[in-house]
Amino acid sequence: MAKVIDDIERVLVDETEILTAVKRIASEIDAYYRDSTASGKKLLLLGILKGSVVFMGDLMKHITVPVEIDFMKVSSYGRSTKSSGSVNIMLDLFRSDLPQTDILIIEDIIDSGRTLSYLTEYLLLKGAHSVRTCTLLDKPQRREVDFKADHVGIIIPDEFVVGYGLDYAERYRTLPYIGILKPEIYNSSNKY
Ligand code: IMP
Ligand code: MG
Predict the structure, then answer these.
(1) 3-class SS at 114?
(2) Which terminus of the chain has a smaller tally of CB atoms within 10 A, N or C?
(3) Which ligand is nearest to the CA of 88?
């Protein structure tokens, strides 16, 4: 644990701020979907593995409308801190009731915007009744495609962050806060 903390330049979002954002998003979701779940549509929280698991786990505890949960896995950055620009589906979603399902994609962070814009289109083509998006963190300065999430937790500056599910090379996911990673941790060949 001490080693991990040594790698963090500073805490950007602490546990209290995260919880406040999670509760606010949960009440936005309750308000938005109250009528559709009451009229027989299913609401599916679709977590994008692996970064969203901690956020999803906390968020679902605070949502009061009935929800189902599922997961998809898409290609990640690997050891790099820069997006490859293309999205590969590693674990797909298979359900026969998509026309009766409202999907809310749950992401850890929006960076270029490619993952969420691609997945939204993909799930609509697969026949979902509706597709909306929710992200804990948003880095609008990094956008490469024009995309806005429907529910946003915290807008952050253009820094590479880890913790609360987010990783660098599969590390730091278990930190309870969001921290800025020290730049010297990055491999010199794939600078952020
Ligand atoms: P996008 O498709 O470029 O918007 O990338 C979104 C994905 O990139 C997220 O789901 C994260 O897995 C990853 N990502 C983007 N920025 C960061 C960061 O600062 N720390 C860790 N992962 C990040
Ligand atoms: Mg991710």
Answers:
(1) helix
(2) N
(3) 1
Residue 151 Cα to ligand 2 middle (Å)? 16
With a Cβ cut-off of 6 Å, ligand 1 is lined by 51, 76-77, 83, 107-115, 160-162, 166
Atom of ligand 1 nearest to the CA of 112: 3
Element (H, E) at 55: helix 53-62
pLDDT at 66: 96
**Number of compact structural domains in the chain:** 1
Residue 49 lies inside a defined structural domain of this protein: yes
* Tokens at 68, concatenated: 């189902």
Nearest-atom number in ligand 1 for the CA of 51 is 12
**Is residue 34 situated within a structural domain?**
yes
Whether 192 is in a domain gets the answer no
pTM check: above 0.90:
yes
Query: What CATH number should be reported for the domain holding residue 102?
Result: 3.40.50.2020
Mean pLDDT by 10 residues, the chain (192 residues): 75 97 98 88 97 98 97 73 74 96 98 95 97 98 96 97 96 97 77 50
Question: Positive or negative, the Cα torsion across 9, 10, 12, 16?
Answer: positive
Residue entry with tokens 């999430």: 149
Residue 100's identity, in one-letter code, is Q
What are the catalytic residues?
111
Looking from the CA of residue 144, the nearest atom of ligand 1 is: 3
In terms of residue numbers, what domain contains 90?
Answer: 16-159
Instruction: Tell how far the Cα of 11 is from the centroid of ligand 1, in angstroms.
Output: 18
What pLDDT shows up at residue 4?
Answer: 60
